[in-house]
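Entry: Tyrosine-type recombinase/integrase
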Amino acid sequence: MNNQTPAPFFIQEGEPLSTLSTDRSLRDSLLDPELYSVIHPYLIDHEDENGNYDYSGVSNIGMVYLYIHRKAGSRKRNTRAEYVRELLHFLRHLVETGINDIRILKRGQLEVYQRWLSNQYPKTKTQAKKITIINAFLSWCYKEGYLKRDLSRGLTMVKLDKKQIPDREIDEATLQRAIDFYKHDPKFLSLLVLLSTTGLRLNEIITPKWKDLYYDSVREKHYLRTQTKRDGVRHAPIKNYVLQVLIEYRRRLGLNVDLNPNDESPFYPNRVGKHYLLTSLSAIVTRKMAAANLRTTNDEKATAHFMRHYFARSAFQNGATTDRIAKTLGHSSSKVTEENYLHRELKKDFDVSDFVELAGFKSDFQ
């Protein structure tokens, strides 16, 4: 065992989970990709003639690390952080119930855990996310021979309750009032109109640099080149009136406003001209929307993500097909768009009431 390897990654004397740390240092270690080159040689040294690794000396924490950073994975840091958070939460719960190693865990105990989880988290979307992550981790551990039981059979995949999907509909008049509210604030106004006219995620706006904005002389449009959630690339059209507000904001910061393929400054900078942190800007957007009373048609508070829903519905109402909307938003399929973004609009379109009229109907109330 390499002495440089963090102690929790290998089995120490005593119970491997009983001293599970709750501090940030453990999470940081689990997210550090550099440690893979320290841990992986241990497995190579313990490979049998059939190409199987001997994980017997690896702790549960070590297996979490290897799963998160395995070469077959392609998760971004934010996704890896979510997996670490959920798996550590799962392992800590096991410790609280007297289970100090997932290798002694039984299928029936996982069934009990899922019942506890459903009581703790009534929303099926939350349950589904947690169960999916735990299921995938346990399945991998079984496939690699770390677990002797296929524990994933103790978990039932959660079917999302469509009734729990929040209403994210924002009407045009409400959005226009928010635009008017911030008409003298080019910083937030530029972000608000960017979100509503492109359907971009916040991360797709704060990650690009100014050099990623370019002009297509054939189409006579400006485009922003940005990386999408699934490592794709989108060339998002930036409307001229949107760009003018953003330019005013950049001008007030003293930043370059001319197109420049070498400009490394952020496309949408913070007040000191640096890239925003996603969590920071997300909180700001929610607060700013609340200040402008930008809420849903059901009077629920709105977040930046709700603007993607506004974009999808607006595009659909103006003739865009669900396939094109799905591709623009970077959804894995049009089914995601139809079920999560346009299900109300499609129900209205599919309703046949317009085909039924009482042609001879008369009343005293007309």
